[in-house]
Amino acid sequence: MLQSAGVAFQDGNAYLYLAYLAPLLSIVPSREIFSLWLKNILAAAVYVALLSLGTLYVFTHFPAWMLVKTYAFLRDTRTAEITQMHPSFYRVFLQAQLVSLLAVFLSVSKMFFSEGKKKNRIWIILLTLSTSAIILSLSRSFWLGAGVAGLFILFAWFFNYGRSNFKRSTKTIGKFIMAGILSVVLLGGIVLFPWPYQTGSIEGFGSVFASRTGSGDVAITSRWNLLEPMWTEIKKAPVIGSGFGHEITYISDDPRIRAEFPDGVWRTYSVEWGYLELWLKMGILGPLSLIILGGVIVFRLYKQFHSNAGDWISLGLIGGVISLYVMHVFSPYLNHPLGLGILLVGYAATKLPNTLKHSNNPI
Predict the structure, then answer these.
(1) How many C-beta atoms lie closer than 10 Å to residue 29's C-beta?
(2) Which of 19-28, 115-124, 256-265 has the lowest mean pLDDT?
(3) By C-alpha distance, which of 105, 103, 101, 104 is closest to 139?
(4) Nearest CA to 70 among 90, 86, 85, 50?
(5) Any bridge partners for residue 89, and if so which?
(6) Cα–Cα nearest to 38, from 126, 131, 158
(7) Which residues are 93's β-sheet partners?
(8) pLDDT, tens digit, for every residue of 189-220?
(9) Is the previous residue joined to 196 through a cis bond, with omega within 30 degrees of 0?
(10) Is 267 helix (H, G, I), strand (E, B) or coil?
(11) Which of 86, 103, 247, 343 could make an SS bond with 130 (beta carbons 3.0 to 4.6 A apart)?
């Protein structure tokens, strides 16, 4: 079926963000420029974390009838997705929390190489805020991406430097654990704060968290319901793809869709299973191209990290890129400017001058 130009553009316009790769191919970022990029990324991560925590406070301290316009504003401006998953707890999910995930890896990497309690204190605060936002997202894709990339970072550190700095490594890992505990305490403190009303509860958060670690929730069943129809559509044009805007009909268990369509039949071009979506719309060369691009970036960043002692920037960005590609298996993030932006920053970092790579304080 031939899609209209408007629908096709609406579906695929985010990939135009990759056009920024053209100038990056011909320039070498200076120390000042890349330092400014890092400052913007970390400032954005702080903003996203505070916005996430502030939204949690609002939705756990006011009755539902007072939150109708707030919910509508956040939904209609595409700022956040607020879902009441328990009578006393809401899920606060922002796509921008992807920046928080990148900040987690940059913080972890920096703390491995940073010395001095005062400097580490700043990075612990950033790590705590960013981790709290990732927990609050209740996104299994975020958690899985963070887990896989985090293990890679730990392995890379120990393989290259940790064996000769075991004491320092254990102290730093202890700080990571402390930041994780502080992030949970921060979330609990916000929920339990008594003013002006306390409508949220720790029990609600615990119940929702436990449900997100299970395998029976509607998001998972909807993904599995989508899988077979996607394969059917992919087989129709496996080489050249069916084009942007191509729609798939499947049975969704999403309660919002069920409220409008009781049988759950849903037709849309916005789907999960990121790599299969690329294959469906671009053909087999679509996912292969992006996988190769990500592989090249990770390989070059790791090569820099391995050869340049103190190159925390490369190690942190490796975590960001790996987590992005892991998440894209289940949820499409490589078709979003935020995800593509991480790829572009990762590529730019492969061209950094050695003076910046060896610097202990580039920002």
Answers:
(1) 18
(2) 115-124
(3) 101
(4) 90
(5) 86
(6) 126
(7) 81
(8) 898 888 887 777 777 777 777 777 655 566 67
(9) yes
(10) strand
(11) 103
